[in-house]
């Protein structure tokens, strides 16, 4: 008789997906919405290159093939429209500069890093429908200290690091569409249904990013996984989007409401920052689920809405949040930076970078990184750093001079900021005269210089938690916390718009028109005189005589002589 053999139990899934939305009412009256989607995959693209991982469930295959082919250890890419106003909005969860930013750590086995970098930028340009193919060695640098790996492996050999920005990159729908297609549910279900292009781009600030890195799955790091984190940050202006009223809802912000969580998500939550409640605003519907987390050195309280629970949507199967403002308050961030160009004329100028330490009694060091294009020739001997009208000598300086048409300037400095102070860094430069083929189609608009990057461990007002848990919110777990007394912050300044000496490109057109006219008239007349043959034509008889001869010919009478 046949025996029945039960089917083996299915193997546990090696990947998982989480999604969350954080809504933070800003003290300026605006609304900050931060989407975070995380995909974890228990695999190793670098060790399994020989087997060529072919089965993809939640992790996007296009990115998995990129990691495997180019031996990428970490990849961070962002597309940002607008500038994050730190003084009005505070610190973002994950900062990004205006335009496009890309920095990549390659595996130590890569022999031709520059070749892999060039090919990688071209591939990513096609994946995200962006102009990343304009990244070349003239705008690529190798920071020595500013960009450390955020995942496993404390790599210190910056030969395998590449960093580049395109401050003029314009972000639009064609960049958002491929970004949404990387999600397991796309924009069909879950939090991604709120991402309506018409609303997202009608905002004061919009930034979308992709971060890929290897991480530990537990505190002892017994198992490792690849983490794909997709983030989208947007700030809605209550004057333009809220019709001048301080009243917000999901429908007013996104023109849509939530009806279900992504079926493939193990966790789907909406967090609303209610730390200032009820002094500033009221929230409806209310929830009894609360979460407390230390974010950016401050203890915050959040109302939590779990989309995997049916009671969250109610009888209408629709979830819509409503926020009504009551008052106003203003808090200053502890670290802030800005930058501008001074001087007059089109020969020389001066770059000013101002860094503010708003902590009342704590001093702390910051790492400043500047990448300046080669056509702004820096005079490094004019570099000055002043704090409270006194010289402030940096404890570490790394400078790599530019090569014309080959690489930009790279300047990194470690500066100690006194408490409650303003530190100013200035350096003079001279503008180069480009070849006429090197100018952009609109040269009088100016040339963009990427943002300065300020990295620091800012003293925390409360004790930071260094314990690792899988249950902590995504927005508080991106940067690992190694000290209880401080937290990591990265601040980007404004990009610069610099005018260069520009020739009058209409002058060649005028010269061509004048020259062609002279040649056509002068040479044409002279050529006609040389080549034309002249003949003497007999004068024709007058009209009356021709008419008389015509009549005489009809009558048969001899013609007149």
UniProtKB/TrEMBL annotation:
Gene: LOC107593938
Pfam family, one: Gpi16
InterPro entries per the UniProt record, alphabetical: PIG-T
GO cellular component: GPI-anchor transamidase complex
Lineage: Eukaryota, Metazoa, Chordata, Craniata, Vertebrata
Protein name (Swiss-Prot/TrEMBL): Phosphatidylinositol glycan anchor biosynthesis class T
GO-annotated biological processes: attachment of GPI anchor to protein
Signal peptide bounds: none
Organism: Sinocyclocheilus grahami
């Amino acid at each position: 008789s046949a025996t029945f053999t039960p089917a083996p139990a299915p193997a546990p899934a090696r990947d998982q997906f989480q999604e969350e939305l954080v809504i933070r009412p800003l003290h300026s009256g605006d609304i900050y919405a931060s989407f975070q989607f995380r995909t974890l995959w228990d695999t190793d693209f670098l060790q399994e290159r020989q087997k060529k991982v072919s089965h993809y469930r939640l992790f996007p295959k296009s990115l998995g093939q990129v990691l495997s082919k180019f031996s990428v250890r970490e990849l961070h890419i962002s597309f940002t429209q607008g500038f994050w106003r730190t003084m009005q909005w505070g610190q973002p969860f994950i900062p990004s500069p205006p335009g496009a930013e890309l920095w990549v750590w390659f595996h130590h086995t890569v022999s031709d890093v520059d070749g892999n970098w060039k090919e990688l930028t071209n591939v990513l340009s096609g994946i995200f429908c962006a102009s990343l193919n304009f990244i070349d060695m003239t705008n690529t640098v190798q920071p020595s200290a500013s960009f450390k790996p955020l995942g496993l492996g404390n790599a210190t050999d910056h030969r395998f690091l590449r960093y580049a920005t395109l401050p003029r990159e314009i972000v639009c729908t064609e960049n958002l569409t491929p970004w949404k297609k990387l999600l397991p549910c796309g924009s069909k279900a879950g939090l991604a249904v709120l991402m309506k292009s018409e609303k997202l781009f009608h905002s004061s600030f919009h930034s979308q990013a992709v971060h890929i890195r290897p991480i530990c799955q537990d505190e002892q790091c017994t198992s490792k996984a690849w983490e794909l984190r997709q983030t989208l940050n947007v700030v809605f202006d209550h004057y333009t989007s809220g019709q001048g009223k301080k009243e917000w809802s999901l429908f007013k912000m996104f023109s849509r409401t939530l009806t279900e969580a992504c079926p493939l998500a193990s966790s789907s939550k909406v967090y609303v920052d209610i730390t200032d409640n009820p002094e500033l605003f009221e929230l409806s519907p209310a929830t009894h689920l609360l979460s407390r987390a230390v974010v950016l050195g401050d203890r915050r309280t959040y109302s939590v809405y779990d989309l995997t629970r049916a009671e969250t949507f109610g009888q209408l199967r629709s979830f819509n949040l409503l926020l009504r403002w009551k008052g106003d308050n203003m808090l200053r961030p502890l670290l802030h930076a800005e930058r501008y160009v001074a001087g007059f004329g089109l020969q020389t100028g001066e770059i000013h970078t101002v860094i503010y330490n708003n902590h009342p009694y704590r001093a702390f060091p910051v790492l400043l990184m500047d990448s300046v294009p080669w056509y702004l020739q820096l005079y490094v001997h004019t570099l000055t750093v002043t704090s409270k009208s006194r010289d402030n000598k940096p404890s570490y300086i790394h400078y790599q001079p530019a090569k014309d048409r080959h690489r930009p300037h790279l300047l990194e400095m470690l500066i100690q900021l006194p408490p409650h102070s303003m530190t100013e860094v200035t350096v003079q430069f001279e503008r180069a005269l480009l070849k006429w083929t090197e100018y952009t189609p609109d040269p009088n608009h100016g040339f963009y210089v990427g943002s300065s990057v300020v990295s620091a461990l800012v003293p925390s007002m409360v004790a930071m938690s260094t314990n690792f848990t899988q249950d902590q919110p995504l927005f508080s777990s991106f940067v690992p916390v190694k000290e209880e007394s401080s937290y990591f912050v990265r601040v980007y300044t404004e990009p610069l718009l610099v005018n260069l000496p520009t020739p009058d490109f209409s002058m060649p057109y005028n010269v061509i028109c004048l020259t062609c006219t002279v040649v056509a008239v002068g040479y044409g007349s002279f050529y006609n005189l040389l080549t034309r043959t002249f003949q003497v034509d007999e004068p024709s008889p007058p009209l009356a005589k021709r008419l008389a001869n015509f009549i005489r010919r009809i009558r048969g009478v001899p013609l007149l002589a």
